[in-house]
TrEMBL record:
Species the sequence originates in: Phascolomyces articulosus
Cofactor(s) needed by this chain: heme
Pfam families: p450
Protein's recorded name: Cytochrome P450
GO molecular function: heme binding; iron ion binding; monooxygenase activity; oxidoreductase activity, acting on paired donors, with incorporation or reduction of molecular oxygen
Amino acid sequence: MSNQTKDRLISTTKFAYGAAVGLFGMLVLKYPDCAIFHDVPENIPRIKGFPLIGSIIQEVANYEKYYGSQHEQFTKLNTLTMVTSAVGLPLTITTIDPKNIEHFLRVNFSNYVKSDHFRTSLKGLFGHSIVLSEGHRWAYHRKAAVRIFSTKRLEDYFAHVIVTELNVMVKKVLDNYALDGAIIDLQDLFLKYTMDSFVMIAFGKNLNTLTSKEVVPVSESFDKCVQHVFNMSTNPFTPIIDKFNNVFRGPQTKSINQHYDTLNDFAYTIIAERKDDLKNGHSFNDLLSVAMEQGNESGEEFSDEDLRDLIVSSIVAARDANAAALSWGLLCIIQHPEVQVKLLQEIENYLPENKNDQQQQPLLFYEILRLYPPATVNFRDALNDDVWPDGTKIRKGNTVSINLYAQARSPKVWGDDCNEFKPERWLQPDGRLRHESQAKWPIFNVSPRACIGQNLATLESITAIVTLVQRYKFSLVPNQNFEYSVSLVMAMKHGLKVHVQNREN
């Protein structure tokens, strides 16, 4: 190579290096504390991150404490609305302001839809059900579900099942633990109780997980699939992890695809059997049978796929959420003996005569769900530009979200005593029950997407809590850490371990 050629190569390299350094410097100046290519709104408070990568380091470091971490950020920024910019994640505007929540979940709800990534991640479990549907497809599923769930026959069957399964949990499990004094994990017990209850309500089949000594395959697959779709929605490396696990799994270990097959085979087998039973004149009261008999809004039969999606999504929506509500609820009651005394007094005074002026039960339920909302976050994507009531400007394509855990702990929303467990906050001065707006207490979402089964879920939770508190004394096993887990439902990360005693009389 001649000296002239070498000089040209050196000059070109220096120029390229200088250009690269210059470009890097320009990008750092343009994105000094946010993710590259994120057009961060200047008028929205935010926790500043690092040049070009934004707050991704903080997001990863605080992943296991995501709900509380956001609460701390809202407190530090002294705001009800903030924006997060992290490389690899969409620019996200999060609000806990009831006015904003009311706006994008009700007033202008058609402008905010679930993202393609979210729908793709959860499709393996929820299919094309109402959980993932938008537009006309959502309206179709919504009308069908409202009609089915408002059937008096199904409501009566629901009440029958939860009482039956509650008796199984009490007489065949808790009574035995009360006798021998052994430690029991109530959260694990409640997951089995709600699994048996809602599979029976949905399919008319009893899994008997409460009394089974062995792992019930479909119940195990259900848990694996629920966790997998959450991982798919939050961890971009999940498909790679799945392939790695599939290669190195043991011969007795199912792959995630086999777990999905187990769940689907269970559902489609029952659907086929039920069709034959109905043709032969048999009658059933479960959700599947009612849906088959009623059909869709046009009176046409549901496809097997629609039936599978309706039933499985109903179980997912109810099972883990109710188990979490019961677990956090019992913890709150155990930790607050004065609340337990009031509840027992009300049970003694009102329940034998079936009076309708009980107060402690709904007060407890509302306060438990306020502090420990099962479905803690809700993400949507904006289809068009919008302006929220607080003046926040939303651009087309922005991701918006709410965090109910942070909202419950905001003095600006719930007052200075927001962190306290105070069921009496739900009483008005005249003694009547206080009803807050859906946007301030969006536990069951906000109309028109409000949860169809919220009355049934309330019935199950209150019935279980009253029965357990009336029958047993619970004491916590010492040195437990009651952290939450970050998943589709905010459950207890380490369970709820207690000793059980029978109450006198």
